[in-house]
Amino acid sequence: MVRKADEGDSFVGYGVAEKFIHRDLLPTDIRQECEKMSWKGELVFRELYRFDPPVPIKDTILGGTGVRGRCFHGYPVTQEQVVSILNTARQKSIFYKIA
Description:
Blueprint: E1 2-5, E2 8-22, H1 28-37, E3 41-56, H2 79-92, E4 94-97
Antiparallel strand pairs: 1-2, 2-3, 3-4
């Protein structure tokens, strides 16, 4: 997960996805929120971790890509890049399991 932090765009955590629920199958209140935000549905995580402190993207393998801000939404990363990012995060942060 990426968001703006004190040091710029940063990884704030990661999750292990369990399933995706299409918005047509969600309860009315959640479905309406999905429609309002133009989301296709809800992603349910099996595990969710927070990095403390966040890890600046510029300090990871993606730092030289030139991608910034909201362009990271849906940005494709390889398994090799994920492993590298998590290794960098282990060196710079503490992981807290939140779900």
